[in-house]
Specification:
The protein is α+β, with helices and mostly antiparallel strands. It is 33% helix and 33% strand. The chain has helices at residues 2-10, 14-48, 52-90, and strands spanning 99-108, 116-119, 132-135, 138-146, 151-155, 163-167, 173-180, 183-193, 203-206, 218-228, 233-240, 249-254.
Length: 255
């Protein structure tokens, strides 16, 4: 019977033989797919398996890191105690932790080159005027007007958003004013001392003066500087840390 079936298959027309081969192949296709999937799973499992030696090495590395972090934490606790004693001796008030709420940008004002935005936090959320607004990258502005469910934020670089700032490396203090008319990622830092020794790349942060913005919020980096007012002052351009053109979420800081 086998010989007879073989002779019949060999003498079939080509198109009939091709169809028969396709039918027979389709019967075994699920088995081939299952075998292929099994091979792939076996390969992935083999990749996921780590040797005992490698696991021991990773465990030892994690143990050392844990010990190092514990020692650093011990040192940090002692430093905190020393700072507390020094604050008590000199009468310094301890810096309070920021309380923050996350808000989403719901509207941009196209009439003034996006110098203001609206967020989905309002008076019902405890928001009030002049609260600082920032992102993890740095300061973006302050709350200028408050509604029940929305608030307007005036961005840094607007004429209505003056910021007391200082250059960290030199302790020179000044005021952040209007943005560069050609580049809204640059702002002007004015009223600096004529003897200020500024170089590109120096860090600019809020100084804490003025009562609106707490100290230590990053603003940006010095881009360049020049003497102004007949050499009485120095003015610098600051490259902002935060990208004002791509804001989606911001943090409102509560005192």
């Amino acid at each position: 019977m086998v010989v007879l079936l073989t002779l019949i298959l060999l003498n079939l027309p080509s198109h009939t033989a091709a169809r028969l081969k396709l039918a027979i192949g389709s019967l075994f296709l699920p088995l081939f797919g299952l075998a292929n999937s099994s091979d792939q799973l076996a390969n992935k499992a083999g990749d996921a398996i780590t040797t005992r030696t490698e696991l021991l090495k990773q465990n030892e590395s994690l143990r050392r890191e844990s010990q190092e972090l514990r020692l650093q934490n011990m040192q940090a606790q002692e430093t905190a105690r020393e700072n507390a004693r020094l604050r008590q001796l000199v009468g310094w008030q301890q810096t309070k932790q920021w309380k923050m709420k996350l808000g989403k940008i719901v509207l941009r004002d196209p009439a003034n080159w996006w110098r203001t935005v609206q967020i989905d936090l309002g008076s019902r959320d405890g928001v009030r005027a002049d609260l600082p607004v920032l992102t993890p990258e740095g300061l973006i502005g302050r709350v200028s007007a408050v509604g029940l469910t929305r608030s307007t934020v005036v961005l840094i670089g607007d004429v209505n958003c003056k910021v007391a700032a200082q250059v960290v490396e030199t302790s020179d203090k000044g005021v952040i004013g209007a943005t560069d008319p050609w580049d809204n990622s640059l702002v002007a830092l004015g009223f600096l001392s004529k003897n200020a020794k500024l170089t590109p790349g120096q860090t600019v942060m809020t100084s804490g003066l003025g009562g609106i913005f707490p100290g230590g919020i990053p603003i940006g980096k010095i881009a360049d500087s020049r003497p102004v007012e007949y050499g009485l002052y120095t003015e610098a351009r600051v490259k902002l840390s935060a990208n004002l053109s791509s804001l989606d979420e911001v943090w409102v800081v509560f005192p």
